[in-house]
Amino acid sequence: SCDASQLCNCSSMGLEFIPAGLTAKMTVLNLTHNRIKHIQSQDLQQAVNLKTLLLQSNEISSIDEDSFQSLERLELLDLSNNSLAHLSPVWFGHLFSLQHLHLQGNSYRDLGQSSPFSRLRNLSSLHLGNPQFSVIRQGNFEGIEFLHKLWIDGSNLSQYEQGSLKSIKQINHMIINLRNSNIFSEIVRDLVHSVSWLEVAEIKLPVEKKSLVQNSTRPFRIQKLTFKEALFTDQSISRTIVSLKEITSLKELQGINCVLEGKGIWDTKEIAMSGQSFVETITIIKVVIQNFHLFFDLEGMESQINKLKRLTIASSNVFMVPCNLARHFLSLLYLDFHDNLLVNKRLDETICERSWPSLQTLNLSQNSLKSLELTAKYISRLPKLNNLDISLNNFVEIPDVCKWPKHLKYLNLSSTRIPKVTSCIPQTLEVLDVSGNNLKEFGLQLPSLKELYLTRNQLKTLPGAAPIPNLVSLSVRRNKLNSFSKEQFESFRRMELLDASDNNFICSCEFLSFVHHEARLAQVLVGWPDKYVCDSPLAVRGAQVGAVHLSLMECHRSLVVSLICVLVFLVILLLVAVGYKYHVVWYLRMTWAWLQAKRKPKRAPPKDVCYDAFVSYSENDSEWVENTMVRELEQACPPFRLCLHKRDFVPGKWIVDNIIDSIEKSRKTLFVLSEHFVQSEWCKYELDFSHFRLFDENNDAAILILLEPIQSKAIPKRFCKLRKIMNTKTYLEWPAGEQQQQVFWENLKGALKS
């Protein structure tokens, strides 16, 4: 399968041959970890634009001579870890663009009689050799003039023809696994003019008097020599020191994972007589001295170290440097003793008065120092020191006052278990690292500080900016920081980098508003936006801070609630106003009356009608009603039965029920209309129910008597049916003259009988 960039991955598919159908579009073909045994001439014929061909970890034992003929654009070919028993120059004859060739891990014993690489003019890196590889002949590297990296697995190399590697004019970095010490010397002689960095692994250095640069002319090119997994003795190391002095270009020596069988009893006289070393940098990492507690103090080596500028001895059980020896490191600028066994008592000897006079950088991390006060006191003897790393020691406590070098600018106190920071920390610092100490606050006055590292602590807020006004870079990664405000951020006027990633942020409205509107934040925050994630609210947990937007209700709850209350009040006010204007109260009363009426039995059948008419009148009109109308109607022949509230209402019964019952038990309802009637509340109730009855029963049970002239508009507009009756039907008006009054009574009696 191929992706958009035409990288085709056929790895680990159990293929026994190169698949058919390769095209010119392919640029990378990965056939690793299959079971391919043979490459045929036509297999890769169409893949003319291939730049990378990966065939490692197959079972390839044979390749047709013209198999790679069409791959003129190929830049990387990996045939490592196969079963090739020989290498043919014809295979590589058309690979004009090849830059990287990997042939290690096969079964060939030599490279042939000539050079397999003679036409690879652009080759930059070459990796060859295997456990069976035993012979390098002259001419094997003909045609190669420059290599960036040459790696030879020659752990069992037994024969090297002198001058075999001389044909390569320049090698930046050469790595060779070599156990034969005699061959080592011959290879070094061939490489002193071409290689810049030589790395030798698995060798047991010889004890020989023969010069490494015998018959070689200056200038030499080799600048760096590394020994990995090498074995030294006291005798061989003495000879090696003497021999390496002859390589005047050599500036750096490394020993990594080596073993020293001895006690440091070196031939210091011979070493001293051989002259001054040109090496400026020595790095020793994980060197095992089996009897390190019996190791001598290297007395007599003082003259060999005064030009040394950089020294690293790490993970090698160093517990002390004799004071006399330390005083002779006159030019040393950089000293790294990390991951050793230094303790405070021995540090007094290691850093004695007038020792390490030029030292600028000291690394004592991951040792066994316990007292920060004593450590600072001894280190204060280094007048030029400005960089100090004492991290990963177990100080536990920190005093209030300490004595430090006057010009100290960088201090690393990370992971030292100090519970707080005090004025023990010098004010001259420009860089301070107190990460991994469970600090809960930081308030030191450090006016010169530019970089502050507070990673893996317990800080809940950013430190104050006032005590550290010149801060440029701040790291508070992996703390308990929940948020920080615009004011806190802007208080660091010179801030260029802020690493607040991997904290559990509370994505409050204030914090999110600041994040979304602070344009400079994205430029300053390290790891933004991927490593800034909300921890709460729960709805946005796990989301990136920059992508979260909370709702208006979540951000302005009190304001929204206040607005809702105001709106509810205004709505109520509006409803009251509308109700007043459109008589909603009256309609509610009507509804109530209607419900009351509906809860009662239907209107009484005719046999239950007790009255001819219910008289609704104002108390102010009672004299006319009781003395005139009642007498006239109840004494008529036949007499009319009238229902009057004063006389006929049931005592103790709710007045509304009395009104409803009386109207329902009367065939007609007489309304004695006057100005007093319109103003009477109880008359209005009677009008209300009568008005409802007009709608509900659709009859003409109401008779209007105008006791005195009134305008129809005096009747409220909500009594639309009654107003319509007054406008469309004849109503009875009480006349002033007696003759007209007689006609009035006749008409009224006729209306009651209808």
The amount of beta strand, in percent, is 15-25%
The CATH architecture name of the domain at 1-168 reads: Alpha-Beta Horseshoe
> From the structure provided, what is the oligomeric state, counting identical versus distinct chains?
single chain
* Highest CATH level, the class of the domain at 1-168: Alpha Beta
H/I helix tally: 19
CATH fold title of the domain at 1-168: Leucine-rich repeat, LRR (right-handed beta-alpha superhelix)
**Shape, please?**
elongated
Full CATH superfamily name of the domain at 1-168: Ribonuclease Inhibitor
Rg value: 55 Å
* Main sheet summary: 21 strands, parallel
Distance between the termini: 105 Å
Helicity level, as a percent range?
Answer: 10-25%
Q: What structural class should be given to the helix and strand makeup?
A: alpha/beta
Q: What do the pLDDT scores average to? A: 88
Uncertain runs: none
Number of strands: 35
Keywords: Disulfide bond, Glycoprotein, Immunity, Inflammatory response, Innate immunity, Leucine-rich repeat, Membrane, NAD, Receptor, Repeat, Signal, Transmembrane, Transmembrane helix
Subcellular location: Membrane
Domain TIR: 609-752
Protein name: TLR21 protein
What does this molecule look like?
- The protein has 754 residues and is an alpha/beta fold.
- Among the domains are: 1-168, Ribonuclease Inhibitor (Leucine-rich repeat, LRR (right-handed beta-alpha superhelix), Alpha-Beta Horseshoe); 600-753, Rossmann fold (3-Layer(aba) Sandwich), CATH 3.40.50.
- The protein is elongated.
- The model has no long low-confidence stretch (mean pLDDT 88).
- It is found in: Membrane.
- Binds MYD88 (via TIR domain).
